[in-house]
Amino acid sequence: MVVVMAPEATQADVDAIVDVVHAAGGEAFVSRGISRTIVGLVGDLDQFGTLNLRSRSGVLDVVRISVPYKLISRENHPDRSVVRVGGVPIGPDTLTVIAGPCAVETPEQTLIAARMAKAAGASILRGGAFKPRTSPYAFQGLGEAGLKILADVRAETGLPVVTEVIDPANVDLVSSYADMLQIGARSMHNFPLLQAVGAAAKPVLLKRGFNATIEEWLMAAEYIAQRGNLDIVLCERGIRTFETATRNTLDISAVPVAQGLSHLPVIVDPSHSGGRRDLVLPLTRAAIAVGADGVIIDVHPEPKLAMCDGDQALLDSDIRELASVAANLPPLMGRTLTPPPAQPAKPARVPSATVVG
Ligand code: PEP
Ligand code: MN
Fold first, then answer.
1. Atom of ligand 1 nearest to the CA of 308
2. pLDDT by residue (tens digit) across 205-231?
3. Which neighbouring-strand residues pair with 88?
4. What's the pTM value of the predicted model, to 2 decimals?
């Protein structure tokens, strides 16, 4: 059961609901979104039936939810949500492009990749500083030094930053640099990590695990929402199937299915799903055509030298075509391409960066 508070509800109204539910032996989880506060109730429904919740001060509605994910379900919140990342919207009216290198390697590489991203129509920069690698011998990312590079490149370009966090102990550290926290496919089932980002004050990009059903993915989002953070964007990034021609199989139908079940925005990662540069643009077109709210794409100034996922990174020569797709396809879907935030007035210099292009 979910109690939807009215926009004018006070903190005292919310506290009174929590108190009365606790007194009845139930649990109450308060989630504050951009436009409303909702209180998810856990416990015996019959118990709550006698509490007259609907007539209490500040209550707009009381909804019985039949699906196991309550706070993120569309049943509870029929309007699709907009999540803002450093002021940049991701939601139903826009198409937001996120792009950047798979991993932050150097200040120069990150700055050039950010400029490529911006030229392609991106309004948010991606880049991993903590990399979850299959092999313990592979490049694990620069850690905090990588986060600093991302913050410098944000100051230079104005692009807000999304970067992955893989350890609950690092959520505060990553939050202090990033505008959005990424939970990678391999971490989707890490429940303590989901709870930790649920308590953080930054929006979350939740990738679907490559072996997760849509319901498991939505339940992972519910873990985050249940801790009070409703600013979640879902990302379909391909699932493992019997097919070996591609790295993973992009489950394109997951986009409208998840959008039908949840009010959260849904974006697509055409880079990690196909794992091949030649598939990135076709899969980007497919994502926009199926109604995705955005895409997240790997770009690299010199993919041959990339320390991670070079095979799927777009080259400088691909940027013009991506820009054309990003500009021309969204209007056919009734969307506008999200513009990047304004360039900072006096761009800070990225230490030791060679400014190219
Ligand atoms: C990534 O986006 O850098 C990444 C590791 O992706 P995924 O978690 O989808 O494999
Ligand atoms: Mn990668």
1. 3
2. 999 999 999 999 999 999 999 998 999
3. 85
4. 0.88
